[in-house]
Amino acid sequence: MDRGCVDLQFPEPTAMPRRGARAASARPPSAHPSVTIVSAVTAAAAPLPDPERTPFGHASPAQVRAALTAEDAAEFDRQWRDAMARATDELDLTEVMHILASWRRVAWVTTSVGAERYRAALASAEHRLQTGERHPGAVSWSQLKAGLGLPE
Amino acid sequence: MSYTLDIDPLAAEQIAELPPPALTVLAEALTVLEVVPWNGLPLNRDNPDGPVRQLPFGTAGMITYLILDDQRRVDVLIVTWAG
Q1: How many folded domains does chain B comprise?
Q2: CATH for B23
Q3: Which terminus of chain A faces fewer neighbouring Cβ atoms within 10 Å, N or C?
Q4: Which pTM was predicted?
Q5: What is the mean pLDDT of chain A?
Q6: Contact predicate B56/A48, CB 8 Å
Q7: What ipTM describes this predicted complex?
Q8: Which of B4, B7, B72 is the best substitution to test chain A (most A C-beta atoms within 10 A)?
């Protein structure tokens, strides 16, 4: 399949101005990718997840919160309260809906692997971010692909 | 310059259980990650440039991954499929 030009923008706009967003960043100054590219990855654009087919696709805020780890639930509460306060002032629920969409993804992934494995995966990622080490059990995608019989 | 992809044991286990159609779209999505991993969604909206990100694939899949930019490496942490 060759679509020539692939729009790699994902469903949730991330450029919406938000007050109070943390400045923490690991992205280098030079890495500001365009959301649209024309390249050899033309066949790589994946369709967007269908909320009708994915768990938590239409989950309520309470359902999302109940599925999160305790630490994520605390962060969800903070973001939700801040956004709701702004929505009340500005009569605009857009940011609230974006936050809910974001946490629905987290709730889905958390429940798919279980809270403990999810927490462990993120803790391991944080360790690797600090040390640069590889996961001791990691395999390269090219190795795994070959093992699964997928073409290079 | 593209990124190398490392697959965590948990993700490898999940990938091995994917049905063939899902595996195909996952492979396409990982090709995207090799080129533009920063285009994924931040795990935490309040840290929009954070290195732990998510990329949807297919109609019911999600890749959660870590970018180690200084090594030009992407570690795939979790592969979720709801199909």
Answers
A1: 1
A2: 3.30.2310.20
A3: C
A4: 0.81
A5: 78
A6: yes
A7: 0.95
A8: B7
